[in-house]
Amino acid sequence: MKIEVGILGNADGSAYIEMGKNKILAAVYGPREIHPKHQALPDRAALRCRYHMAPFSVQERKSPAPSRREQELSKVIRESLEPSIFTEYYPRTAIDLFIEVLQADGGTRCAGITVASLALADAGIPMRDLVSACAAGKVDGQLVLDLNDVEDKGGEADMPVAYMPNQNAITLLQMDGMLTGEEFETVLNMGLEGCKQISQLQKEALKAKYTVAKEDEKEEESEEEAAE
Amino acid sequence: MPVFYENKQLVTPGDLLAENDYISGENTYKESNKIYATRVGLFGHEDKRVYVVALKAFYLPVVGDTIIGKVLEVTLGGWVVDIRAPYVAMLRASDALERSFKPQKDDLPSIFDVGDTLVAKIVAYDRTRDPLLTVLERGLGKIARGQVIEITPTKIPRVIGKQGSMVSTIKQETGCQITIGQNGRILVSGKSPEDERLAIMAIRKIEEEAHISGLTDRVTEMLRKEKGEKSKEEVTENVSKEN
User: Fold this and answer.
1) Are A50 and A69 in contact (CB under 8 A)?
2) Quick check: A128 and B39 CB within 8 A?
3) In this prediction, does ipTM exceed 0.90?
4) By a Cβ cutoff of 8 Å, what residues of chain B touch chain A?
5) DSSP character at residue A87
6) Which of A73, A147, A186, B129 is most buried, judging by how many CB atoms fall within 10 Å of its CB?
7) Among the residues of chain A, which ranges form H helices?
8) DSSP single-letter state for residue B118
9) How high is the mean pLDDT in each 10-residue block of chain A (228 residues)?
């Protein structure tokens, strides 16, 4: 798994993730003035989210027009990130979030939430916590974590979970397939464990952006000293 | 009642900073007696106050701030100004004219036109209304000459320095006029482009090294060195011409 933060120059905040075979880019603009004006909310910022899959992200070419699935995922991702943002600090503004799936292999909504949260933090938007997401499920009678495309389609159950570790709050919980009550609990806990691990990687990635900058400076300084 | 980080340690949103008796400062929030960070930044605490110095943020208007804005639009009764904040600011014609505004006589585009850069002051702002500006004070108004550069608004206090020590150093060393907008725009105007280049270089250095101590000394040293090299070159040029 590879995460990079702040890789786009023109966006206010950005992040990139490679999680398994998934490759996803997220960009954030704002808070900024909202257009069209009627979308403005009087008491908080409006989070607008666009999840989009590139035509070349899947085996069979996908039409670039937003599909029903993408519209639903945009809404689901928006609702799983909104609790983490202090939207009430910036009434009448918009925070625009773009999630671009470059290569997909199952579990793009989870990876999408994970990068999007980093892009928001990179944009300097005040947040309650970082949101990390991970899927768990059941394949061939086995309870498994982080399913890929084949496991998702061929398996018995798939459960994406988004989680704020410091708040101990679940912001997204979906499931399809069949699980017994006991299995459900185990799978949920597995998912949460996965989220906690991803959260560590998120923090490292976010800190890496600034520590790298610091090290560069140190190197420059030592070079200067050496030159002198 | 512990604090979980050391001063100047890097924290990320959601990190638990302190518990119980502490007071939540900048870029933090308190929930059930626990204080968490809301932005990526450097941790700090003074007495009971816990805060985070953000490494990246955007400008939020504060009444009384001097800012540098760009005119976006001329309307019937004033101007719409971009101030690098989540909100656009309004400058009413009556806040730009010494006398009362007469819509039939006064031609607004001839006062400020789209694209003009202004030094202005925020006179009113709250979360229900867009910020209002004025240019009716000394040192405010249209910028006629110089260069405007943009830096992260969080670094503005470092550019100013303790009691303005940093700006006055740069002003002294380069002979440039420097106007700092709290919104992260800085106007530099000097006698020659070379002076302006030096001042901008110094500001960029401050922006990059804001978190390393002993900054004022290093900036002074850099400026003197640069100036020294420049004058040496001039001397050698003159010598070679004479020869």
Assistant:
1) no
2) no
3) no
4) 10, 12-16, 27, 29, 36, 38-40, 54-58, 86-88, 127-128, 208-209, 211-212
5) G
6) A147
7) 68-81, 108-122, 149-154, 181-227
8) E
9) 94 96 96 95 96 96 96 97 96 97 95 97 96 96 94 94 96 95 96 96 92 58 50
| The pair of three-digit structure tokens given for residue A118, joined into one six-digit string | 């980093």
**What proportion of chain B, given as a percentage, has pLDDT over 70?**
94
Where does residue B232 rank: exposed (0-12), middle (13-18), buried (19+ CB within 10 A)?
exposed
Q: With contact defined as beta carbons under 8 Å apart, do A111 and A149 qualify?
A: no
Please list, in sequence order, all residues whose beta carbon lies within 8 angstroms of the beta carbon of residue B67, skipping any fewer than 6 positions away.
Answer: B59, B61, B83, B84, B89, B119, B120, B121, B122, B133, B181, B182, B183, B185
Q: Do B13 and A165 touch (CB under 8 A)?
A: no
Q: What is residue B172's three-state secondary structure?
A: helix
Q: Please tell me the number of Cα atoms within 13 Å of A101 on its side-chain side.
A: 29
Burial of B66 (C-beta count, 10 Å sphere; 0-12/13-18/19+): middle
Bridge partners of A2, per DSSP, are A18
Whole-angstrom Cα distance, residue B72 to residue A166? 42
Q: What is the pLDDT of residues A153-174, one digit of tens each?
A: 999 999 999 999 999 999 999 9
Q: B31, B35, B40: which to substitute to probe chain A, counting the most A Cβ within 10 Å?
A: B40
Gyration radius of chain A over CA positions: 19
Summarised one tens digit per residue, pLDDT across range B14-55 is 999 999 889 999 999 999 899 999 999 999 998 899 999 998
How many helices (H) and strands (E) in chain A? 4, 10
Q: Which two tokens stand for residue B150?
A: 């943009």
